[in-house]
Amino acid sequence: MRLQEFLINDIKPLSSGSKIGELQELFNQLTYSHIPIKDTNDVFAGTFFETDVHCFDSEKLISDYLYSLEDFYVKESTMWLDVLEAFAKNSANIMPVLNEKGNYIGYYELNDVIGLFNESPFFYEAGGVLVVEKGINDYSFSEISQIVESNNGKLLGAFISKMQNDIVQVTLKISNTSLNDVIQTFRRYSYNIASGHEEDSFTQSLKERSDYLNKYLNM
Q: What are phi and psi of 26, to 5 degrees?
């Protein structure tokens, strides 16, 4: 995917020698959850969270609050799915990007990455969504693919949408076949069917079944 096309560099990291008031003013002008910070040697130091910054003394220096920096970023070579995961883990809508030498080169916006995700065949191709469950030590993606293809289906995408109490939940997007036939085969292989939806309702159903996508697709 063309993730690098969405790299933005119009926000330069504030220096740790700047006043907190400058950082607060920047947050007032923007809608970002975090702002990148560099140290006095122009090296990326981390990001400040907006809510924290508005509790700081505007007359003090950023360097007085370095203990509150959040250390998250991705590399320019990071795959798009890992970038999306980094957004989720850090509850951020901006993601600093470093080159392979560790230098700050810009950032990604969450909406851009989500938009790129929505362009994948998992979303735009016609088909049905099926959510299956099995023991974490008993399932395999090769078996899942075999079950789908044995029913003349095509697997457009699959991801682990939940792991709890030694049970793994896998969300599948399937085309070219009836879900009923696939469901019956999964049951014969001892998979529990958590949910199955035909193509006209798959997007909404996927949002309802996956906490991960429900949180970040609707931000």
A: -65, -40
Nearest to 90 by CA among 114, 73, 113, 68: 73
DSSP labels, 106-174: EEEEHHHHHHHHHTSHHHHS--EEEEEEEETTT--HHHHHHHHHHTT-EEEEEEEEEEETTEEEEEEEE
* Series of mean pLDDT values for 10-residue runs along the chain (219 residues): 83 93 94 93 93 95 95 91 86 93 93 78 77 94 94 88 90 84 92 68 47 54
Question: Which pair of tokens denotes residue 101?
Answer: 């030498």
Q: How many angstroms separate the Cα of 136 from the Cα of each of 70, 132, 195?
A: 33, 12, 18
Which residue do the tokens 């996956």 mark? 210
Distance set, CA 2 to CA 76, 101, 111, 115, 117 (Å):
11, 21, 15, 11, 11
Q: Is the pTM of this model over 0.85?
A: no
Q: Quick one: tokens of 198?
A: 């035909």
Residue 34, beta-bridge partner list: 49
- Nearest CA to 44 out of 18, 89, 12, 76 is that of 12
Give the number of other Cβ atoms within 10 Å of residue 76's Cβ: 13
